[in-house]
Amino acid sequence: MATVANNSLIQGMRGTLGRLVFRTVGDRTIVSCRPSIPRSRKESPVQRLNRSRFREASQYAHAMMRDKAKKEYYWQKARQMKLPNAYTAAITDFMRKIRIQSIDTGRHTGNASGNIIIEAHKKNFAVDQVNVTIATKTGLEIETGKAVRNASGKWIYKPVNIADQKELVIIAGAVDHLGKTTFAKPVAGGKPFACYEYGRNLTPPRWFIT
To answer: Regarding the domain with residue range 99-209, which homologous superfamily does it belong to in the CATH classification?
Structure first.
């Protein structure tokens, strides 16, 4: 960038000339190079997914702002979370995922008894329901049903069928009030393996069972 003074040829010029941009500030004329237009970068699959999700979140938030009751709900959430407005709270709700922190199958022996205990949490927002699917490792579903939340906030599921526990896959599906489901299944010696499925699909995908 350069400042030009006492040059009658360009004094007071504004606009562009080739790759030069002229601006007048007070009694000075400032010359700078026109910024290059960045080439569009090829997005990775993750970047495309995030862009798509944010676009869906924005559409959702706009819809919520047109509903008086839901807008007030998100205003309350915004105040609780110290966010600037209801729109931002709605975006946050849509983007935030349920986390299934644990699936305790230690009390389940394969008989029609012994509870399965699930801990599921969505920060600042509610988990509406938790479903449990019990299947064989080959993908054959044995049973599915809703867990019940106890006084401590954990979700309890009591199996009703008898099966060989060694051949079972137990999957929890936690659903938020938007209808989005997080599926998870326990793995030996570690945290549950999570699979995030968006939409109102309460049945875990077959590839996730086997």
So the answer is: Expansin, cellulose-binding-like domain (2.60.40.760)
HSE (side-chain half, CA atoms, 13 Å) at 149: 13
DSSP bridge partners of 85: none
In angstroms, the CA 179 to CA 201 distance is 8
For residues 205 and 84, what is the distance between their CA atoms, to the nearest angstrom?
A: 38
Evaluated on CA atoms 111, 112, 114, 115, the torsion sign reads positive
Give, rounded to a whole angstrom, the gap between the first and last alpha carbons of the chain: 63
Query: How does pLDDT run across 34-82, given as a tens digit for each residue?
Result: 666 555 567 787 788 788 889 999 999 999 999 999 999 999 999 999 9
Burial bucket for residue 132 (CB in 10 Å: 0-12, 13-18, 19+): buried
> What does the mean pLDDT of the chain come to?
83
Give domain limits for the chain. 2-33, 45-95, 99-209
For the stretch 154-198, pLDDT in tens is 999 998 887 777 778 899 999 999 999 999 998 877 788 888 776
- In eight-state DSSP terms, residue 8 is T
Residue whose tokens read 């938007």: 178
Q: pLDDT tens, 91-109?
A: 999 999 999 999 998 887 7
Token readout for 32 is 């700078």
